[in-house]
Amino acid sequence: MLDNEKQLSEKTLATLLADETLLTLPEVADKLGLRITRVHDLLSAKRIIAVELSGKRYVPAAFFNDKGAISKHVAGIITVLSDGGFSNDEIFEHLFTPDETLPSRPIDALHGHLAREVIRRAQALAL
């Protein structure tokens, strides 16, 4: 990616995630009760993804359920979209952009009764 494209992408993501609670990787480790190296393993395995803003990596708090665990559908949709050729930035854009056919954004719907619908739509997009 060219530097201008990377800066544009970072600005777009920063705007999209402006109202989100973003956790640093050490905060994710604390939240999950894991060592930081295990968080890096989760990132490598694409169980979660991180956004890079101003040279630091963050994971949205929206990836976790109210019990402090990774929401069970988050890893699934990341896998579906990633296997379909989506970059991490494109996955963030898909998950955090409001969808007028849903009551909210796909990331919000993953925490409710529409999770299967969101994953089904992601599978259709990834074809």
Automatic annotation (TrEMBL):
Signal peptide positions on this chain: none
Q: Where is the Rv2175c C-terminal domain?
A: 72-126
Keyword Aminoacyl-tRNA synthetase applies: no
Keyword list (alphabetical) reads: DNA-binding
The DNA-binding protein Rv2175c wHTH domain, residue ranges = 15-64
Would the keyword DNA-binding turn up in this protein's UniProt record?
A: yes
Write out the GO MF terms: DNA binding
Q: Return the Pfam families for the record.
A: Rv2175c_C (PF18367), Rv2175c_wHTH (PF21531)
Q: Which InterPro entries match?
A: Rv2175c_C (IPR041098), Rv2175c_wHTH (IPR048576)
Q: Under what name is this protein listed?
A: Rv2175c family DNA-binding protein
